[in-house]
Records
---
Amino acid sequence: MKCLLIVDVQNDFCPGGALAVPDGDKVVDIINLIIDKFELVISSQDWHPSSGAHFDRWPIHCVANTEGAALHPALSKEKIDIFLLKGTDGSDTGYSAFEATNINLSDLLKYRNIKSLYVTGLATEYCVKATCIDAVKNGLEVFLVKEGTKGIDDENCKKTLEELKKNGVKIISYKDI
Ligand code: VGL
């Protein structure tokens, strides 16, 4: 069973948003192209209270129930089965989708017999990285779809991809799914 995980493709991480990732919106077309190939599609969203330690480190972004926290309007939302929310207590945690507070992702994947997790989304060096590392720790075969993720800084992204490879994550093209 294959699962697609779409990490934080939210307005605030796309151009014009409060914590924009350059070309962050470009991942949407790639995700929409591959979304039908999976038995299960899960997305995560940062869902922060309006204040807290996370905003000592970052500009205010993805405040719960705001337009900035909404998924990008062009994402095929009707094809998403499960919506995870994370970062809900304001502390500087919740980078990984496995830290979602509304659903236990680890239990859900076990229950649905998911062995392979295909990760896409924003931002490569932060929430995508943390999610991939946790997925490996959960015993999953983890694929990072390279065209389906964008990061804040090119150099950091390159380092991140190397680090993920060392941790057993397979970096693939959407064309190979
Ligand atoms: C993220 C920085 C701060 C992310 C979230 O989604 O990668 N990055 N909060």
---
Amino acid sequence: MSTISESELLAQVPDRMFIGGDWVESTSGRAIEVQDPATGLVIKTIADASVADGTRAMDAAAAAQADWAATPPRVRAEILRRAFDLLQERADEFALLMTLEMGKPLAEARGEVTYGGEFLRWFSEEAVRIGGQYGVNPEGTGRMLVTHLPVGPCFLITPWNFPLAMATRKVAPALAAGCTVVLKPAELTPLTTLYFAKLLEDAGLPKGVLNVITTSTSGEVSGPIIADPRLRKLSFTGSTPVGIRLLKQAADNVLRTSMELGGNAPFLVFEDADLDKAVDGAMLAKFRNIGQACTAANRFIVHASVAEDFAARVTARVRELKVGRGTEDGVTIGPLINEGAVSKADSLVRDAVSRGATVLTGGSAVDGAGTFFEPTVVTGVVPGSDILREEIFGPVLSIVTFTDEADAVTKANDTQYGLVSYAFTQDLARAQRLIESVQTGMIGINVGVVSNAAAPFGGVKQSGLGREGGAEGIMEYLETKYALTPSPGA
Ligand code: NAP
């Protein structure tokens, strides 16, 4: 348990941007007020980047690129490893900071520190394992060499829902690969990123390798960076509509891109499922992060023969959830990020009910300070309801039924998204069929969380392009280069 108070912690978080190894004021003359969504109060005021500040960050990343690429992999690895160790020392501080600016319960924020930290450790190990190939060409006349080189300066854009992990999942592989970075967190949760930049500075990262800009005008500031001919890579995590816009901008500069976009995860419960395990999995897959995860189960697709039992059991568990400020003991559901998120959850529930669904528990916004929504279960959801098509991004569990496996798979795939899916069944052959037939980049069989730094995270369809984590993660930041030499003595 950290002994640091909220005010002491907030006082030691930088309020300026990190550019070229210096903590700098913005030239915009504006400031960003960061709020605690549990109270609506401003907790810190920080720099608000102008277009010129963005260009300055790009200048610094470009200037540092050659030296960082030439830095021995072992040296890059050890900086990342030191960052991992420092994060363990500061774990309680990072956890509290995320709870303050984003709202998640403290225990979950600690979980994010563990998860986010693993990317630093994993990619410190991957930095020294960037391989290549050497071989004889089929004609026997030459030697073919394939090597992997850093892509070059990268622009990394992260969302508000996992303020630390979404940054480490991009920054760690970029740095491990030898790329320099401009990092832009969401306006709603910039403090964790600034504190993370300080940690990397303390870990000995050379000046200019990581640059952080915080801005309330993300489109205006990002445009010139994406158009800058020195930029070689754009990696984005956020919503699908913004991802599509950024892909179009990136096309003009023919940038390498990685896109981790929205989800609409199906959670399938078959008639042979262990329902206790399915309910445990459902609670994790739905209510972790207050339902505000791209991996959050969005549609519970349950066999008609067990739907009533499943709904009753899950409703009993949902009634035990405790809503409140994430810093309070025992709280399991914090606030949603803002009023817009509350209105969206409310309108999705209303639309489902207007078409015939039944609310088993919850269903409304919570009156008073902060942006809270009751943990909710809605059953009997009718096909065509908005709640089945859109990302809920809130603590609302919606149930529809299916009759056989083919029906379940059709319903699971009836979305433009394809990030993750979950399936509960005790039939191994069925599980194997689902792994192949459900159109998602990831699938959890009898588990409610799949994320792991050692695994390739990412989606298909409109959930994105590329993978983060695993052996694939570092390849997103490497170019493949092929060289041909004549055979020896030729
Ligand atoms: P968002 O509105 O798309 O914003 C994401 C980031 O993009 C923020 O930093 C935002 O900055 C920035 N941004 C917005 N418009 C921009 C523009 N025109 N140019 C450059 N940057 C721009 O998404 P969000 O509401 O923060 O996050 C929730 C979404 O992220 C959900 O759809 C969720 O599924 C998805 N997500 C996906 C994954 C994954 O791995 N697939 C992980 C987590 C979240 P400002 O906020 O400052 O405008």
